[in-house]
Structure to design on (434 residues):
């Protein structure tokens, strides 16, 4: 792609003007429109930012047409096959795969930041037992800034490091505390001798009164590790852009991450994994699939096939392909091979949708959330916790993106403009005259 400027013509005045083109390593180049308003007096209009790059980034690359996803240049398939979540986290945060000693030091740091301040745990008692865990998690993550003042100088690289390790280490403990609170069970403290995913499972499923009754199944820990690798980052999606936008004001990073968690919760984004299982349960039986496909296609029906479609992928989401393969393996290993009606239903639904002209013409394929809930369910994780699991994995991506933004000399506070369609100036009327 050439770096030649892009020339545009103002059809009213006939004047031509140029926009600088900026080219990345791979993928489409961008037109720098930052001087457009100053020079031409117009804004651009791009609902949902479908054609707008909000930043330059060296972390994650997606080619939606080809179904490609890479972290720091490494294809997701290779990382899923050969790496671990901890190693991927280091890669996202620091840009390169770690040496053995770097990995050990990073792993040790994450293991030794897992505990929560005891006062912090008391927040959970303020929530009703039936509070949605995402509400609890986003709330208490925002509160972290009130506890860890020593890591909120965003210009200090040591502070940024401690923040990144701390949020990544504590988010499973926070998630587990939310889960235990919803059950009315005592919190289970982290065990630093366990790896990241095993520790999480232990905090979720062990019960202090029944010591030794729960042992982490290595298959479950391995499955979780893979899901976390696949969910760790996804460039400038809704929640990541939210973290960047909130962070661009210079707010403390815990508040920015909390904003991201809230954005992730929506059913059009990370909340889709919960919505998929609800949908599959509602469909209930393969003989009902066509009825639901017809509803998804009906413009007068708000129903959408959850877990289908993606803003960027107009081809298979590579993460969905990996998770589908993993479903076969995990369900078999967890001895649920013969009793997986939801998985069977999901496979059939996918097959029918992929042959349907509506889905073909609109390039709608299963996304990462279509199959992830089936694995979470097999691991014993309740539906309401699915999006929390997504948030745990994505926390490292948010931290990496926030760090990149803070260090970027080009960063400015995010402040979109608008097309005003309200009333033009008018005079105030006293209440008696209205
Ligand atoms: N079922 C039925 N029709 C769909 C679906 C779907 N799941 N997704 C998109 N469409 C249709 C739309 O109705 C629209 O049709 P039209 O052009 O005739 O109006 C067209 O496809 C384009 O859809 P948009 O909503 O304009 O696409 P957008 O890029 O804005 O939205 C989104 C993408 C939100 C993911 C959408 O596909 C969707 O709602 N999917 C279901 C929810 C979901 O699975 N979300 C998870 C996304 S992955 C993630 O965030 C982790």
């Amino acid at each position: 792609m050439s770096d030649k400027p892009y020339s545009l013509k103002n059809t009213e005045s006939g004047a031509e003007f140029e926009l600088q083109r900026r080219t990345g390593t791979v993928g489409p180049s961008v037109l720098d429109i930052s001087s457009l308003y100053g020079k031409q007096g117009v804004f651009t209009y791009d609902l949902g930012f479908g054609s707008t790059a909000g930043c330059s980034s060296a972390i994650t690359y997606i080619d939606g047409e080809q179904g490609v996803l890479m972290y720091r240049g490494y294809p997701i398939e290779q990382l899923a096959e050969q790496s671990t979540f901890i190693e991927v986290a280091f890669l996202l945060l620091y840009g390169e795969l770690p040496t053995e000693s770097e990995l050990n030091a990073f792993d040790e740091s994450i293991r030794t930041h897992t505990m929560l301040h005891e006062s912090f745990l008391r927040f959970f008692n303020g929530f009703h037992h039936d509070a949605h865990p995402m509400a609890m998690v986003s709330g208490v993550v925002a509160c972290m800034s009130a506890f860890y003042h020593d890591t909120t100088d965003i210009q200090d690289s040591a502070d940024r490091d401690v923040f990144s390790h701390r949020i990544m280490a504590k988010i499973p403990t926070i998630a587990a505390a939310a889960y235990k609170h919803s059950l009315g069970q005592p919190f289970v403290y982290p065990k630093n001798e366990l790896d990241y995913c095993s520790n999480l499972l232990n905090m979720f499923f062990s019960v202090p009164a029944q010591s030794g009754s729960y042992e982490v199944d290595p298959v479950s820990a391995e499955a979780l590790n893979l899901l976390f690798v696949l969910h760790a980052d996804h460039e400038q999606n809704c929640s990541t852009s939210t973290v960047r936008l909130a962070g661009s004001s210079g707010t403390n990073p815990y508040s920015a991450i909390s904003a991201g968690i809230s954005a992730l919760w929506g059913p059009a984004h990370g909340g889709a994994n919960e919505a998929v299982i609800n949908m599959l349960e509602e469909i209930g039986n393969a003989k009902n699939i066509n009825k639901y496909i017809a509803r998804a296609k009906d413009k007068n029906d708000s129903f959408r096939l959850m877990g289908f479609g993606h803003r960027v992928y107009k081809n298979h989401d590579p993460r969905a392909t990996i998770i589908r393969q993993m479903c076969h393996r995990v369900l078999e290993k967890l001895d649920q091979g013969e009793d997986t009606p939801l998985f069977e239903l999901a496979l059939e639904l996918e097959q029918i949708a992929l042959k349907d002209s509506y889905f073909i013409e609109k390039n709608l394929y299963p996304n990462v959330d279509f199959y992830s809930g089936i694995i979470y369910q097999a691991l014993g994780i309740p539906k309401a916790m699915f999006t929390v699991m997504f948030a745990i994995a994505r926390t490292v991506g948010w931290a990496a993106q926030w760090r990149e933004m803070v260090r970027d000399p080009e960063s400015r506070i995010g402040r979109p403009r608008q097309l005003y369609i309200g009333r033009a100036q008018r005079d105030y009327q006293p209440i008696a005259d209205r």
